[in-house]
Amino acid sequence: QTHNSAVRPVRHNEPLPIPVAPKTYTLHRETDLEDFEPQSGSSTSTYGDEEYPADLSHRQPHLVTQPELYDLFRDLELPKSKSQLLGSRHQQ
Questions:
Q1: What angle, 0 to 180 degrees and rounded to 10, lies between the N-to-C axes of helices 80-91 and 66-76?
Q2: Domain ranges of the chain
Q3: Which residues contact 59 (CB under 8 A, 6 or more apart)?
Q4: Region entry Disordered: which residue ranges (predicted)?
Q5: Rounded CA gap, 8 and 36, in Å?
Q6: Where are the alpha helices (DSSP H) in the chain?
Q7: What is the pLDDT of residue 72?
Q8: Distance between CA atoms of residues 68 and 80, nearest Å
Q9: Reduced to 3 states, what is the DSSP secondary structure of residue 53?
Q10: What is the mean pLDDT, run by run of 10 residues, along the chain of 92 residues?
Q11: CA 90/CA 52 separation, integer angstroms
Q12: Which phi-psi region, left, alpha or beta, contains residue 27 (left: φ > 0; alpha: ψ -120 to 50)?
């Protein structure tokens, strides 16, 4: 089964001109996650899945445990040499 995710090229013309990049860019300060307060009604994922609410106010990095790493190796069906390489890079 193939998925065509690329957009088909279109010919540019007067109603659809070639975009021109701005000469200067302004970078805005990213919102600090500690300051984030979800609005009412936006507590679930963007897919509307009530079973898995999105809790963006307590977002923390997920540290991979050794058993999770072994599960990943198994699921990826990596040969032993590739698993060892990935494991050694994970420890760095």
A1: 150
A2: 63-91
A3: 33
A4: 1-62
A5: 38
A6: 66-76, 80-91
A7: 82
A8: 16
A9: strand
A10: 63 86 73 53 51 66 80 82 78 66
A11: 28
A12: beta
What's the rounded Cα separation, in Å, for the pair 53 and 45?
A: 6
> Are the CB atoms for 83 and 73 separated by under 8 Å?
yes
SS3 6: coil
Rounded to an integer, what distance in angstroms lies between the CA atom of residue 1 and that of residue 23? 43
8: its two tokens: 């088909």
Question: What is the residue whose two structure tokens read 């109603």?
Answer: 15
Can you read off the two tokens belonging to residue 5?
């995710």
d(CA 85, CA 91): 10
Separation between Cα atoms, residue 59 and residue 34, nearest integer Å: 9
Q: Which amino acid is residue 7, in one-letter code?
A: V
Q: What is the largest CA-CA distance in the chain?
A: 58
Residue 27: predicted pLDDT: 66
C-beta of residue 86 within 8 angstroms of C-beta of residue 78 = yes
